[in-house]
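As the work plan foresaw, our protein records have gained a structure token line. A representative record is set out beneath this paragraph:
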Amino acid sequence: MGKAMIDKLKIKSSKDFADPRDWRDYVRAFVPDEDVDYVRAFERAQLFLCFYKLREMKPPTEVKAELQRIAKLNEPERTEALEALNDLLLATATMQLMSECKSNTVADNPPGVPIDPREQIDTLLEHLGRTNPCYRFWRHYTGSADSAGRLPWEELVTTLHSLDLSKNAKSEEEYEVLIGQLGQLLAHYRDNNRPLPPLSFERIWFLDRLRGPERNLQARAVVQGLIEAMKPCASA
């Protein structure tokens, strides 16, 4: 199942869903079981490639030819090859973003010293609290005493933006919803002392350095990656 087959099935993009978890459930219900993992991996590839296009970055390989080659493989080699391509796209984009930011605030862990997941996420949450106004707003929202009577986060954000007629209103609304989902996922990873997927720390750290559509794409890809890493198997 390549892009042509996915188009034929009229599979919706994760961008058509406010919550990436809803897209995951949609794929599980709509796509044959043997193709679920591949479709999810293909969607992540499309998100990465949209990010490359927006930033006018050259992919590290001839993507169209590679996707065509991968689509001809049998399972599980097909999904494994696509995940390897995703890893390459992710690593290349993250390294370039870090280079452009010229920041030494993200230090490499010394070789041989294991990373404590909870401490790493605490560092990340502290950074988000200092640099990301949307995350601070979400943290205040979740910390309010009257949790029983408050609106769901997505509904609250939609209500706050309902009278905003600026051209950036929908983009800001989408980003704030994604940041709330990111906050929930990071809390889950922290509470379970679960390690973040590779390069997730760096991508989240630099998230607020991005602007416009590329920022939302990065946020959506990060959220989708955290969800997929929690349940890597189609049957999960």
